[in-house]
Specification:
The chain crosses the membrane at residues 25-48, 55-74, 99-122, 158-180, 210-231. With 232 residues, the protein is an all-alpha fold. It has a single domain (19-231), classed as Fumarate Reductase Cytochrome B subunit (Up-down Bundle). 66% of the residues lie in helices and 3% in strands. The protein has helices at residues 4-12, 21-42, 46-69, 76-79, 83-95, 107-127, 146-179, 186-191, 210-230; strands at 15-17, 193-195. A two-stranded antiparallel sheet has the order 1-2. It is elongated, with a radius of gyration of 20 Å. The structure holds protoporphyrin IX containing FE (2 copies). One protoporphyrin IX containing FE (HEM) binds at residues 23, 26-27, 30-31, 34-35, 63, 74, 105, 109, 113, 116-117, 167, 170-171, 174, 185-186, 189. One protoporphyrin IX containing FE binds next to helix 2, helix 3, helix 6 and helix 7.
Length: 232
């Protein structure tokens, strides 16, 4: 006799490993680093803020390369789609259930992912050239002119608000899926596994080696370290 768990699985379909470990670790490390960056800026602990921001920079650089050479569902080419695919997804998602199922990011979520990554990259990059005009300078401030520092400092303060809005939208979308669509996206981002609706068929997405992810992470950290050292 099938156990309750197996029976549920048979009713709903096969479990597939959709998110690899590097992508999941990236996500939750990013959440922690961005949260520390925001809270430390709020409380004026700028030494911690800069460390957290540099960590965000390393993580985003890693993710951009992993988006090209990483596992199937992590690749931009796999999930970034044009307006037609987005319209088509919106139609299917109104029907709900298996019609709306995607292995990785859906085409609308993909827009959010790419925008978040780009905004975090610009935010962390501009932070390196940001000064509070009193005590604290980002590590690359000595390399830039006063006008560039003023411009990038303003950008850094302005874009922070955009990032708050975007994170709010992102988390709201995840909870909309959970509470309205009854589609839990959080569990797969923790366990890596999604249940494939019973009537759909799909092969398990191809996974890239974790050692490659480690090498990319080390190279990203090395690059940021070298750039910071360049400023002395
Ligand atoms: C600082 C706050 C956050 C940032 C910057 C952030 C950023 C991101 C990014 C960049 C991705 C794409 C992942 C990838 O493909 O590598 C993503 C996906 C995701 N995030 Fe977040 N996230 C944040 C907070 C959260 C929170 C609090 C939750 C849960 C409540 C969450 C749940 C998810 C889920 C479920 C996905 C996958 C969505 C899907 O299946 O398409 N995120 N997030
Ligand atoms: C994605 C990562 C980052 C986020 C979300 C972020 C966010 C913020 C926020 C919200 C503020 C306060 C703005 C205000 O007072 O209105 C701030 C200020 C600041 N940030 Fe960042 N930041 C990030 C990365 C960095 C990095 C990498 C550095 C430098 C290594 C940096 C250096 C600074 C400095 C020096 C200030 C003080 C500016 C002032 O008080 O006028 N930030 N940041």
């Amino acid at each position: 006799m099938a156990s309750g768990h197996t029976a549920t699985r048979e009713k709903h379909g096969r479990e597939l490993r959709v998110w690899d470990l590097p992508t999941r670790l990236f996500h939750w490390a990013l959440v922690a680093a961005v949260a520390v960056a925001i809270l430390s800026a709020e409380f004026g602990v700028l030494a911690v803020h800069m460390l957290a921001g540099e960590t965000v920079l390393i993580l985003v650089l890693f993710r951009m390369v992993w988006g090209v050479v990483g596992s199937q569902t992590a690749r931009f080419a796999d999930f970034v789609k044009g307006p037609r695919a987005i319209r088509d997804y919106l139609k299917r998602s109104r029907a709900g259930g298996e019609a709306a199922f995607t292995l990785g990011h859906n085409p609308l979520g993909a827009l959010m992912v790419v925008t978040l990554l780009l905004m975090l990259l610009v935010q962390a990059g501009s932070g390196l050239f940001t000064s509070d005009d009193i005590l604290i300078d980002g590590p690359l401030v000595p390399l830039a002119s006063g006008a560039t520092v003023a411009l990038l400092s303003s950008l850094h303060r302005l874009l922070a608000n955009g990032i708050f809005v975007l994170i709010g939208l992102h988390v709201a979308a995840v909870f909309f899926h959970l509470l309205v669509r009854k589609d839990n996206l959080i569990r797969p981002m923790v366990t890596g596994r999604k249940i494939l609706p019973a009537r759909l068929s799909a092969a398990e997405p191809r996974r890239a080696p974790a050692a490659l992810a480690l090498a990319i992470l080390a190279a990203s950290a090395g690059l940021v370290f070298l750039v910071l050292r360049a400023a002395g």
